User: Which sequence fits this backbone?
């Protein structure tokens, strides 16, 4: 065990998988000699060689298409989006070529699409987005969004080993802000399993990625008032861990759904529907959604601050729901 | 290493003319000297055609009516077939058989449609059989291909059966996709190495580049053949795919079928160049123009491109000039095509001309031809019967197969990763980057 940042943990996971499995290779923009815009693949090209760390033209559809083609020959490509916002450029390739491949013609697509998403870094409308719901809504894709270094390492390994296309969302706000003990040994975190981040009896917050830490801060404040939050970190957004979602609602009977993505069509709506289907009778209060505004991600710090869900929003809504 | 790559890149900037001449491989013992010299167009792109038709489709507004007219010389004689440098006599005959099989199968599909046995529409490659069959026929046994909707002949050449295509159109349980998808939208990565197309055009180009890349990582240089239309190549992903293949010298063999009509839009309103092969210059790869109705030209050009791919020298762009002789799909009567234009190309029918060529060479007698066609008809009848007898899929199977799970596939490198000397022991170092996004 050694301390590692969220970014370092992803690098370790990727590095270890490339060491142990020669069919894993990386492809993306500026990932070779430069080591990637955020340096996730720094040093990889020197160690693994130019054949396995491939710099591409600025062409996201070509990156995904080439990764898919290579996957058809039995390899396990890991394609980097320099920023997840640019996944829009490869939308057709992902949604129509890759995701439908196994269903339509029985060709598995064991590839990982990874890269930084999320706001809070004043990246503006094109360097801050959370594009998960486009792909949660695409049958055939798995979507993973870790919140901690350990999960980031364990999930990148599982994503690489999975026989399906996995969208691996790295929250860039967390890259170098959080650090924890990360197992050195070969371990993996299963896709499709949520995690209880904090146990609590009074009400549940179901969330993922950077918002897990927002929820944690709120929980620390509320604990002083005697309100004990249970925090569920979904870790995988597709397929969802319906059991974990239902279980926490049955336990606390009150639930807040929190995400950094915008509200309309966000995951919270889907979670609310699942709770309605599976645990309606267990609810002792309304399902509350806390999300970003239904706007593009604004650039200027005061605007972005206003746009994003904050600790005080969670504290306020939790107090209200607790009293309900 | 880096310097070497750089040098190769630079030397690749002017390869076009050389690549189109003979690549030095003996043409199966037959003298190759008979064919006329190869012409080069104003941009230095070799043009193997034995005629260069000069005409243009224009939009004409006539009172309240708007239609297309064709202007130019349409009475020129039908050109001969260019002698193949590579095909043996037997190969000519086998290729001819595939082309006839391609056409007869599509006639059978049309009949199934008329009997209301097809779900949805039917797409035809009428007039494009040489382009589909002769190109696929030039591939090596391990090479990959990804057909477009009009390349049904290529699927036959590469080992699929007419029944597979028929069952796809009839949405049967026995179809390669078990009813999950129709038309040519199927594939096989195990044996026949066909990548399934999707309806969106151009997306196959980076995918086929990726197949070549994946094989190269495993120590194998593959030719990856795909086709695209003068319409399809307009998409942005086409550029991305071709450029990536060129930059990394991947084994993409791209046939641009300039079939003059993208659904109902004539090529003149699709691109502002006369020869799409000119674009090869912009990508930094060899380009060549051929007569897509001449099976020998299609075979020879593809053969040379495949050889290049096998040598790891990179992609080739082949522009095949021809015309789509039916509508976009069966519902489309193609009334927008000027009659005299259709007539011009009908006289250049790829199968009629190839048949005449073989008869004149006395490689085929009329009796043998008749017998061969009867054999094909019989085979197609049996295929159709098989397809018709396949059941429709059970509704509940719609829920299956979204994910590859529970061991449904074992994934391993197809060609095996070659063992390499271990690189120096590296370790992960702490990093600092993208400071402005911290």
Assistant:
């Amino acid at each position: 065990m050694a301390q590692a940042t969220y970014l370092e943990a992803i690098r370790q996971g990727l590095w270890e998988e490339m060491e142990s499995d020669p069919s894993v290779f990386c492809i993306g923009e500026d990932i070779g000699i430069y080591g990637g815009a955020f340096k996730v693949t720094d040093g990889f090209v020197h160690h693994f060689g130019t054949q396995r760390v491939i710099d591409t033209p600025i062409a996201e559809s070509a990156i995904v298409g080439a990764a898919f083609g290579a996957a058809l020959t039995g390899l396990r490509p890991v394609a980097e989006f320099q920023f997840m916002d640019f996944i829009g450029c490869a939308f057709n390739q992902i949604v129509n070529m890759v995701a439908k491949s196994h269903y339509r013609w029985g060709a598995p697509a064991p590839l990982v699409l990874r890269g930084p998403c999320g706001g809070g870094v004043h990246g503006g409308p094109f360097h801050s987005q959370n594009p998960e719901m486009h792909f949660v809504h695409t049958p055939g894709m798995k979507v993973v969004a870790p919140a901690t270094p350990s999960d980031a390492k364990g999930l990148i390994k599982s994503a690489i080993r999975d026989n399906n296309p996995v969208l691996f969302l790295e929250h860039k706000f967390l890259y170098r802000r959080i650090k924890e003990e990360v197992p050195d040994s070969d371990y993996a975190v299963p896709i499709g399993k949520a995690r209880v981040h904090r146990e609590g009896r009074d009400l549940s917050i179901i969330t993922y990625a950077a918002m897990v830490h927002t929820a944690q801060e709120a929980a620390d404040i509320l604990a002083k008032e005697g309100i004990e939050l249970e925090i569920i970190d979904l870790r995988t957004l597709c397929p969802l861990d319906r059991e974990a979602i239902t279980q926490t609602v049955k336990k606390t009977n009150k639930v807040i759904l929190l995400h950094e993505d915008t509200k309309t069509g966000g995951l919270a709506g889907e979670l609310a529907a699942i709770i309605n289907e599976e645990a309606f009778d267990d609810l002792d209060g309304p399902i509350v959604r806390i999300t970003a505004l239904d706007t593009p991600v604004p650039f200027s710090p005061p605007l972005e601050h206003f746009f994003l869900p904050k600790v005080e929003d969670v504290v306020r809504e939790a107090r209200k729901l607790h009293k309900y | 290493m880096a310097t070497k790559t750089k040098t190769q890149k630079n030397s690749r900037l002017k390869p076009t003319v050389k690549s189109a001449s003979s690549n030095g491989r003996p043409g199966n013992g037959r003298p190759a000297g008979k064919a006329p010299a190869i012409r080069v167009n104003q941009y230095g792109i070799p043009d193997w055609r034995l005629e260069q038709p000069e005409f243009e489709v224009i939009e004409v507004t006539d009172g309240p009516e708007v239609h297309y007219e064709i202007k130019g010389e349409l009475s020129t004689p039908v050109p001969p077939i260019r002698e193949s440098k590579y095909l043996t006599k037997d190969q000519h005959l086998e290729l001819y058989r595939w082309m006839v099989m391609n056409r007869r199968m599509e006639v059978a599909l049309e009949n199934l449609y008329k009997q209301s046995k097809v779900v949805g529409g039917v797409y035809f490659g009428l007039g494009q059989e040489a382009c589909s069959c002769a190109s696929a026929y030039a591939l090596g046994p391990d090479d990959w291909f990804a057909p477009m909707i009009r390349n049904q002949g290529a699927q036959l050449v590469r080992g699929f059966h007419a029944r597979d295509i028929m069952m796809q159109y009839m949405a049967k349980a026995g179809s390669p996709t078990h009813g999950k998808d129709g038309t040519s939208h199927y594939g096989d990565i195990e044996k026949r190495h066909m990548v399934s197309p999707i309806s969106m055009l151009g997306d196959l180009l980076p995918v086929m580049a990726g197949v070549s890349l994946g094989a190269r990582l495993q120590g194998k240089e593959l030719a990856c053949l795909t086709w695209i239309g003068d319409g399809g190549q307009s998409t942005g992903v086409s550029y991305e795919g071709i450029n990536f293949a060129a930059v990394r010298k991947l084994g993409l063999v791209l046939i641009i079928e300039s079939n003059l009509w993208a659904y109902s839009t004539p090529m003149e309103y699709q691109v502002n160049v006369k020869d799409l092969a000119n674009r090869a210059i912009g990508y930094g790869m060899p380009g060549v123009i051929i007569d897509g109705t001449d099976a020998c030209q299609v075979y020879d050009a593809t053969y040379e491109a495949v050889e290049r791919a096998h040598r790891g020298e990179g992609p080739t762009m082949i522009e095949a000039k021809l015309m789509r002789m039916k509508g976009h799909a069966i519902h489309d009567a193609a009334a927008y095509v000027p009659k005299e234009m259709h007539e011009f190309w009908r006289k250049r029918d790829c199968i009629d001309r190839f048949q005449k060529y073989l008869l004149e060479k006395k490689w085929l007698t009329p009796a043998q031809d008749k017998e061969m066609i009867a054999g094909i008809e019989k085979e197609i009848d049996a295929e159709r019967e098989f397809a018709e007898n396949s059941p429709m899929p059970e509704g509940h199977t719609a829920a299956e197969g979204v994910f590859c799970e529970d061991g449904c596939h074992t994934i391993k490198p197809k060609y095996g990763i070659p063992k390499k000397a271990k690189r120096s022991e590296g370790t992960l170092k702490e990093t600092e980057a993208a400071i402005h996004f911290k």
About this structure: Residues 215 and 284 of chain A are 21 Å apart (CA to CA). Chain A touches chain B through 71 residues (CB under 8 Å). The mean pLDDT of chain A is 97.
